[in-house]
């Protein structure tokens, strides 16, 4: 019997798939997939972010989309070797549609497709001006009327939003708005980014001083400009802020700092938004065709209503407003919550000499930073991965190629290894009274993040302070009420306090839509984030993608963009291409528009 190479197996299936799609033979295409199969499409076939599960869903999508999409030229990527392990063959391929060029990943089991990823790389005729298409910059020759680069930029800044209108307005100038703004700039889409803070990066600079990126540098690059090779593994907040400010300037973004959005209304008849902003005290009316809320995946701060808040004589702050520990040396501080912000704030307060107590109301997933880097991220995002030839783009696509429906199956063994490696650490935490979990199904950090965006801490040192009692802990209870000078818990414990910090998380992003547009529009769109996994804080029905993120919503011309730096980088590509296609007047038949969902 011939030993067929992985590359030949991939070629064979891609050829059959291409023939079936080209001839419109949907049944032949469907039959190339095994019964338990997944096709994740990022824009190319669905003009959506959509995962199709099983033959019936794939058949339905192709029946709807195939005639207009016209896929062709499925060719294995010659630069990437196909491979085989544990009965699974995987490889990379390029392809085209009528309007775009795409890139994909495929996994085979027993000669049939198990998982398929198709992603849009660029729109034909609207390619980014990079590489061989890069602009000349300085104009050689002679022209009495020509303008310098500086003069052109000054003219653009003076006119955009006043005598000319942007096609896109992005509300929110953190990493998400900046990454998307950079993509749109490269695609020639006139865009204004609205940010309430004065400078790019202020959303980092103005947080508590111990804040830093808990993800390592290889995971956090922005589009086009990766961090330099001497960049620290974990970036302090002010360094992140300076990088974002530099990036905004270098990428020539139209960034309106010190500007707040007062209202936004969509006119269905004209297909245009009316966005009223206050720019340094001046009211400006913008009329974009598309509106993007990039106000942060976490949405609006969630501050619980507690009896006695009106009589408490000390300070009360949400974690997002906490200035840092300097003013609280020798003070008694109670921090409500036990996730990332709570741990960071407690540790910084202890270092400053405060008497600090953490109130843990429900269990938290903890993973040590070095274990996460070594076991959880090391194969894709690390110096080791770079040395082995891994690129950021390839790592992002590998991560994207795992459908959410089965991603936990890949994560559970990783966290089992971490649990075993750090068994003594976890035992010491539990002995201190800390309530631990690894997610409802043991799948750990990434699935908790994707499902609910909360409930975890990447340990960079605070846990040792809990273990040795330096940070006091009250777990398994909640606040009953406040007195003039204390927090009283439901178990009767009274904690004297000069400051109460509510590290109690955030609501859905659509809370911003309710404030800026209307409650009617927010309800029409539904909840943002979560995949419908029927786990804690992520109830069904199953959606299979992040609800309402980076894709069309039930409100025409309204988009949501958020997430960590990795997601801001990766998904900004697909959102920018969807926006560019609409600006260019291309047909964008959306398949599988998400229905609204309101439970959280």
TrEMBL record:
GO terms for MF: flavin adenine dinucleotide binding; monooxygenase activity
Region of interest called Disordered, as start-end residue ranges on this chain: 128-149
Cross-referenced Pfam families: Pyr_redox_3, SnoaL_2
The protein's name in its UniProt record: Putative flavoprotein involved in K+ transport
KW Oxidoreductase (keyword) present: yes
Alphabetical list of InterPro entries matching this protein: Auxin_biosynth/cation_transpt, FAD/NAD-bd_sf, NTF2-like_dom_sf, SnoaL-like
Superkingdom of origin: Bacteria
Keyword Transmembrane recorded: no
Span of domain SnoaL-like: 17-114
Entry keywords, A to Z: Oxidoreductase
């Amino acid at each position: 019997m011939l030993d067929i190479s992985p590359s030949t197996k991939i070629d064979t299936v891609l050829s059959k798939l291409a023939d079936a799609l080209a001839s419109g033979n949907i049944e032949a295409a469907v039959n190339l997939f095994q019964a338990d199969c997944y096709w994740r499409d990022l824009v190319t076939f669905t003009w959506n972010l959509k995962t199709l599960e099983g033959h019936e869903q794939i058949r339905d999508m192709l029946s709807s989309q195939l005639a207009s999409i016209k896929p062709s030229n499925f060719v294995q990527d010659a630069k990437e070797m196909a491979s085989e392990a544990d009965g699974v063959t995987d490889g990379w391929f390029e392809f085209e549609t009528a309007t775009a060029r795409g890139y994909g990943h495929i996994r085979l089991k027993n000669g049939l497709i198990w998982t398929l990823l198709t992603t849009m790389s660029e729109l034909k005729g609207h390619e980014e001006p990079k590489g061989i298409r890069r602009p000349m910059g300085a104009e050689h020759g002679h022209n009495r009327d020509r303008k310098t680069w500086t003069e052109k930029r000054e003219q653009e800044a003076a006119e955009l939003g006043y005598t000319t209108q942007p096609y896109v307005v992005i509300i929110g100038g953190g990493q998400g708005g900046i990454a998307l703004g950079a993509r749109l700039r490269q695609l020639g889409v006139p865009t204004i980014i609205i940010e309430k803070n004065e400078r790019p990066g202020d959303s980092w600079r103005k947080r508590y001083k111990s804040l830093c990126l808990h993800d390592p540098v290889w995971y956090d690059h922005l589009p086009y400009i990766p961090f330099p090779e001497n960049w620290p593994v974990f970036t302090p907040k002010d360094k992140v802020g300076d990088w974002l400010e530099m990036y905004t300037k270098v990428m020539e973004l139209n960034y309106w700092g010190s500007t707040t959005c007062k209202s936004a209304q969509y006119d269905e008849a004209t297909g245009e938004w009316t966005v009223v902003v206050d720019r340094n005290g001046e009211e400006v009316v913008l009329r974009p065709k598309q509106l993007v809320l990039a106000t942060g995946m976490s949405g609006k701060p969630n501050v619980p209503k507690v009896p006695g808040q009106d009589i408490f004589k000390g300070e009360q702050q949400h974690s997002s407003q906490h200035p840092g520990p300097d003013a609280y040396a020798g003070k008694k501080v109670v921090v409500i919550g036990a996730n990332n912000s709570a741990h960071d704030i407690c540790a910084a307060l202890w270092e400053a000499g405060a008497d600090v107590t953490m109130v843990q109301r429900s269990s938290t997933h903890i993973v040590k930073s070095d274990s996460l880097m070594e076991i959880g991220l090391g194969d894709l995002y690390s110096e080791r991965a770079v040395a082995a030839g891994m690129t950021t783009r390839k790592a992002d696509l590998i991560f994207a190629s795992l459908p959410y429906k089965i991603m936990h199956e890949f994560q559970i063994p990783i966290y089992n290894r971490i649990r075993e490696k750090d068994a003594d650490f976890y035992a010491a935490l539990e002995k201190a009274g800390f309530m631990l979990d690894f997610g409802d199904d043991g799948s750990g950090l990434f699935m908790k993040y994707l499902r609910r965006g909360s409930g975890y801490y990447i340990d960079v040192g605070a846990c040792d302070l809990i273990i040795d009692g330096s940070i006091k802990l009250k777990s398994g209870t909640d606040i009953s009420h406040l007195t003039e000078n204390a927090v009283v818990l439901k178990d009767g414990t009274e904690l004297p306090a000069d400051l109460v910090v509510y590290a109690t998380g955030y609501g859905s992003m659509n809370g911003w839509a309710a404030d800026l547009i209307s409650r009617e529009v927010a309800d029409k769109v539904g909840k943002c984030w979560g995949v419908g996994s029927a786990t804690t804080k992520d109830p069904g029905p199953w959606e299979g993608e992040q609800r309402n993120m980076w894709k069309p919503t039930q409100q025409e011309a309204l988009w949501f963009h958020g997430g960590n730096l990795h997601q801001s980088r990766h998904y900004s590509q697909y959102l920018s291409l969807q926006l560019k296609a609409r600006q260019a007047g291309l047909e964008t038949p959306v398949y599988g528009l998400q229905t609204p969902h309101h439970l959280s």
